[in-house]
Amino acid sequence: MTLPKFALRYKDFSQADLQLFVKARNGRRMRKNASKKSLIKELVALDEAATFRFVDLPPEMRNLVYELLLTHNRFAGRKAYPAILRTSKSMYQESKSILDADKVISIDATYRCFPRLHGGYVDLKGDVKFQDMLSTLQRHFERDLGSKLKLLPSIGSLKIKLRLFSIGPPRPQDMSFPKIKYFIDMLFRPCRGLKRFEIEWRIQDGVFDLDALASLVAHIRTQCVARGIELQFKSLPQNVEESNS
Questions:
Q1: pLDDT value for 224
Q2: Could you give the 3-state DSSP secondary structure of residue 113?
Q3: What top-level branch of life does the organism fall under (predicted)?
Q4: In terms of CB atoms within 10 Å, which end of the chain has fewer, N or C?
């Protein structure tokens, strides 16, 4: 037996059947007095050297391959290989929807507050290489994020690791996190197909006002509800979560 889970059990067939199998595989019969053992050995060798056209597989099996190759999720350690879409027009047409629907784009966003410098900035890393987004956030967003993530309209799932910390006590005007709110709003704008949005929080203890965090969380919830996006928070402080429930 060549493939225990999927293939035929050659030893369960007669010599005549095995002769037919060999002829079907290579177009010729083995000698008439060939033993059953030699016939099975020949079939095993043919199995190991076998090739087939990918498009000859049933659609269900092709979709399993597409799902394996085109599902990107950095948090789960899975990387997509979209180069397969260049193989042929038919493969592109039947696999592109899987790439669009199943990949998970992840972004590491760090908000650094510098009170003495009268401001802060959002630093972005992740699946796409970003430049630091300083106070000119809109220009950088449009030039860097907008141009590099042309796939944003098609993605179905987005995950963000959001880190919030301050170099020194933040000023009251920093409490509303305007750059984070603007970043979320600008990110949602092109994501017309977004269905799932997840934020994993990393917040510096004892620095940021919980009311300001609650306001930021409420803003994100409102944006997701308005767009019909499924929202999930991870590691959000319990008292902030309760104030938004």
A1: 93
A2: strand
A3: Eukaryota
A4: C
Q: Of 26-30, 73-77, 93-97, 188-192, which gets the smallest average pLDDT?
A: 73-77
Q: Side chain identity at 3, as an amino acid letter? A: L
* Predicted local confidence at residue 119, as pLDDT: 46
Residue ranges with strand state E in the chain? 104-114, 119-126, 157-166, 196-203, 230-234
Exposure letters 160-180 (e unless 16+ CB within 10 A, then b): bbbbbbbeeebeeebbebebb
Question: Rounded to the nearest 5 degrees, what angle is found at the Cα of 99, between the Cα atoms of 94 and 100?
Answer: 105
Distance CA 91, CA 106 (A): 26
On whether both 78 and 28 belong to a single domain, the answer is: no
Give the pLDDT confidence score for residue 128 in this predicted structure. Answer: 45
Same structural domain, 37 and 109? no
Strands 119-126 and 104-114 turn out to be antiparallel
- Which of 66, 99, 132 is the last residue in one of the domains? 99
d(CA 14, CA 11): 8
**In which domain, by residue range, is 25 found?**
12-48
Alpha carbons 164 and 180: distance in angstroms, whole number: 10
**pLDDT at residue number 231:** 93
